[in-house]
């Protein structure tokens, strides 16, 4: 009887543990994805594996996320400065129009960024983001090397250093 | 004894369902929660407008968060 009661009490714990599943950690293969271009809409799909052999930064942003407006210009600067670096900026807006309005309003259709649209948030879910904005750095072999959730001014230096470290590897 | 076991099972089931309902909304799923309409302000800019009218009526600003002069025309 005690064993039966214990199993019933452990059931909620099991549900909670299942809910606490975390996404891929540094060192694991980066989950591949294929998404449409945000700005052109019909410019053909883009996959992460298209960028194999290049260090790739995948940034997750949305028009409703105020701090995201701060990271995009910096990422554009990183992308423009390093020709070998690919920066994919994934909009998580359900409505493509809102994302385009945001980019137009903030004049953020920056060079150096490839804007993609994850309208169903499938990629965000695959990476199990823990903040907005979030970014991951994928090395030339497709391995997830660094992930960062959330944003503060101080984070930029760390992110830049991580990009430089991964880019510096042969 | 059987009643106690049934009660324990029922309690565990209710607890499991209740805890399952406490799902954490992931940061990337908060688009609707981030909408200004969800603000407790009870209407877009209503609080700002009320503060503006208050400062206009009181012929003074600075005591609150109201902005602008006394004409009541600034947003």
Q: Looking at the structure, what is the overall shape of chain B?
A: elongated
CATH fold-level label of chain A: Glutaredoxin
**Secondary-structure class of chain A:** alpha/beta
Helix percent band of chain A: 25-40%
Largest sheet descriptor of chain A: 5 strands, mixed
Q: Largest interface, by Cβ-Cβ below 8 angstroms: which chains and how many residues each? A: A-B, 27 and 21 residues
> What is the count of distinct domains of chain A?
1
How are the strands of the biggest sheet of chain A laid out side by side?
A: 5-4-3-6-7
Order of helices and strands of chain A: HEEEHEHEHEEH
Query: What is the chain-wise order of helices and strands of chain B?
Result: HH
Roughly what fraction of the amino acids of chain A lie in strands?
15-25%
Just give the CATH class of chain A: Alpha Beta
Describe this structure in words.
Helix content of chain A is 35%, strand content 21%. With 170 residues, chain A is an alpha/beta fold. Chain A has a single domain (24-167), classed as Glutaredoxin (3-Layer(aba) Sandwich), CATH 3.40.30.10. Chain A is globular. The termini of chain A are far apart. The mean pLDDT of chain A is 86. Chain B has 75 residues and is an all-alpha fold. Chain B contains two helices and no strands. The longest helix of chain B has 19 residues, at 2-20. Residues 65-75 of chain B have low confidence and may be disordered. The chains are: A alpha/beta (170), B mainly alpha (75). The interface between A and B is medium-sized, with 27 and 21 residues.
């Amino acid at each position: 009887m005690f064993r039966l009661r214990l199993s019933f009490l452990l059931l909620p714990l099991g549900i909670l543990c299942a809910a606490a599943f975390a996404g891929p950690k540094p060192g694991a293969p980066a989950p591949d994805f294929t998404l449409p271009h945000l700005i052109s809409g019909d410019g053909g799909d883009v996959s992460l594996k298209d960028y194999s052999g290049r260090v790739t930064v995948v940034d997750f942003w949305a028009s409703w996320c105020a701090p995201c407006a701060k990271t995009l210009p910096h990422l554009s600067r990183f992308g423009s400065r390093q020709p070998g670096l690919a920066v994919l900026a994934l909009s998580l807006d359900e409505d493509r129009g809102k994302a385009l309005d945001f980019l137009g309003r903030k004049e953020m259709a920056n060079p150096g960024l490839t804007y993609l649209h994850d309208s169903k948030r499938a990629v965000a879910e695959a990476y199990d983001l823990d903040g907005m904005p979030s970014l991951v750095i994928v090395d030339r072999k497709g391995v997830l090397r660094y992930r960062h959730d959330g944003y503060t001014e101080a984070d930029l230096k760390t992110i830049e250093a991580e990009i430089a470290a991964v880019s510096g590897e042969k | 004894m059987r009643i106690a076991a049934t009660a324990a099972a029922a309690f565990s089931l209710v607890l499991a369902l209740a805890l399952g309902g406490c799902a954490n909304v992931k940061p990337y799923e908060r688009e609707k929660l981030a909408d200004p309409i969800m603000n407790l302000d009870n209407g877009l800019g209503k609080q700002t407008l009320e503060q503006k009218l208050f400062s206009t009526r009181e012929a003074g600003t600075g005591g609150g968060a109201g902005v602008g002069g006394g004409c009541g025309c600034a947003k």
